[in-house]
Structure prediction request, 149 residues.
Amino acid sequence: MQTATFYIVKEKSAQATQAGFEEYIVFLTQHFARQGAKVYLNCQDKKQAETMAELFWQVDTDQFLAHNLVGEGPKYATNIEIGHQAVKPSWNRQLVINLAENETTFANKFAQVVDFVPCEEKAKQLARERYKIYRQAGYQLQTIEIAYP
Prediction:
């Protein structure tokens, strides 16, 4: 069964800032990859994908995990692949972490979807729309409040 988990960003949390949210995305992506998941990080656009890829290079050496942008590196080389709405993952990934605001049509290619409910009202409404789409597609849904320092 396909699942979709929405992580709720609390208004006064560190994740409510762009830097805090990006740090959390790196943490969460690495968390799933360390558990053996083949993760696809779906960004809004190429610029965000490149920014996120750069953030993975900036972690402490003992926390580093190999990653690549779609089209770079060997096809099956890393557990973390970073792309955006205009490209497709290089190969089957089981889990997608969605950072894009509107794109959900790709989701049925993944067994597990991770998405977010931001604090900003417009972004929150877009998250509600994605939630409805996942529900209509038959996903088992859950929400989790982010509990990360």
The chain has a mean pLDDT of 89.
